[in-house]
Amino acid sequence: MSTKNGSLVGLNFYKIMSKKMNKWINYIKESKLINKKNILHELYYVLILGSVPALLSYIIGGTDELLKLMNSSTPPFILLLYLSLIFGLHLVITLELKKKPNSWWEEYKNSKRLKVKIFISNLAQGVIGIYRLITGIALIIPLLSYFFIAVKFDLIDLLALESIGISFFMGTCLISFIYKWTETIPKTANSKLD
Q: What is the pLDDT of residues 48-69, one digit of tens each?
C-alpha cells in the first residue's frame, strides 16, 4: 500500500514539476536571449578579453611571455568550482527575490536580500569575465601554436585543440545567457512562472 501511495506522490510531483518546467522553458524562449546577436557579442567579449591579450603577449614577449600569461590567468580547478558556486548562488538568490512579497515582513526581508543580490550579481559579472578570459586564451593558443610557434602537429590536432576552446566558448555563452536571463525575469515572477 505504501508503495502505491509513494508512486502516486511521485507521479503528482512529476506532473507539477513538468508543468513548471514547461512554463520556464516557454519564458526562456519568449525572452529571446539566445540569438545570433548575443552570441556574436559574447564572441567579441571573449576575443577582446582573452584572445587579444594572448596575441599581444606573444608578439611582445614570444612564447615565454605567452606561457606566463597562460599560467597566471588560468585558475586551478577548485577555484573554477568555487566561481561556479558563486554563480549558482546568484541564480538562486535572484529567483528567490523575484517572488512577489506576501506581507510587509516579506518586503522588508526582500529589501535586505536585494543588497545581497546586488553584491552577488557583481560577483557573477566577475565570474563571467574570468570565464571569458580563459575562453579567449583557449581559442587563440591552438592557432598561435599551429601558425607561429614551432610546435609540430597536423590539422586534425589543431581542430581537436580548437574544439576545446569552442567548448569553453559554448559554456561561457551559457553562463552569460543565464546571467542576462536572471536580470530580465519579471519582478513578480509568480504571475508568469508559478
A: 999 999 999 989 988 888 888 8
